[in-house]
Amino acid sequence: MSIVTTISDAVVSRINAAELSVELTAVRGYRPVRDLAGLSSIKVAVIPVSLPRLDITDREGSTERDYQVDIIIQKQVAADQATDDVDLDAADALMDLEDEIINLFPGDPFSDGEYVCTGIDCEIFDMERMNDNGEFFGVISLTVTTIQD
């Protein structure tokens, strides 16, 4: 199995082992859910995105490689007819979940010290998907560094 796939599995394990405000099961995959019609539960997919393009070797001969893994959070959010917006409480809960997941990867080693999250970028949600079909679609991009001797 490739390193980025192994990293993705480690990210899934860390999310599934965490005590989060909502119950969910993260899975590794290669694309997000395409049809959310009637989707009432939260879907969390961990997707391997990139292999390293450049190896950096330090003076001691260790090689660092950066990989990108995306965490996709999806859920159909009901419309609030009174405000012509989405259900704010439901959307806020999903944004809180994003914060909780981000805080699982603060830069400390994980998976028995094999990997370190060295960068996090977050697209809070996709406005177009929210406007078009009420789909909350958040993306957390992790840069994970491996160091090999």
Give the total of beta strands.
Answer: 9
Which band does the percent of strand residues land in? 35-45%
Helix content: 10-25%
Spatial separation of the terminal alpha carbons: 20 Å
Tell me the CATH architecture: 2-Layer Sandwich
Integer average pLDDT: 85
Largest sheet: 7 strands, mixed
Backbone CA Rg: 17 Å
Shape: elongated
* Helix/strand/pairing category: alpha+beta
Q: What's the CATH topology name?
A: STM4215-like
Top CATH class = Alpha Beta
Order of helices and strands: HEEEEEEHEEHE
Segments where pLDDT lies below 50 for 5+ residues? Answer: none
How many DSSP H or I helices?
Answer: 3
- Structural domains: how many: 1
Which descriptors apply to this entry?
single chain; 149 residues; alpha+beta; STM4215-like; seven-stranded mixed β-sheet; two-stranded antiparallel ribbon; elongated
Description:
The protein is elongated. The protein is α+β, with helices and mostly antiparallel strands. The two termini are 20 Å apart. The protein contains three helices and nine strands; from the N terminus they run H-E-E-E-E-E-E-H-E-E-H-E. It has a single domain (3-148), classed as STM4215-like (2-Layer Sandwich), CATH 3.30.2000. The model has no long low-confidence stretch (mean pLDDT 85).
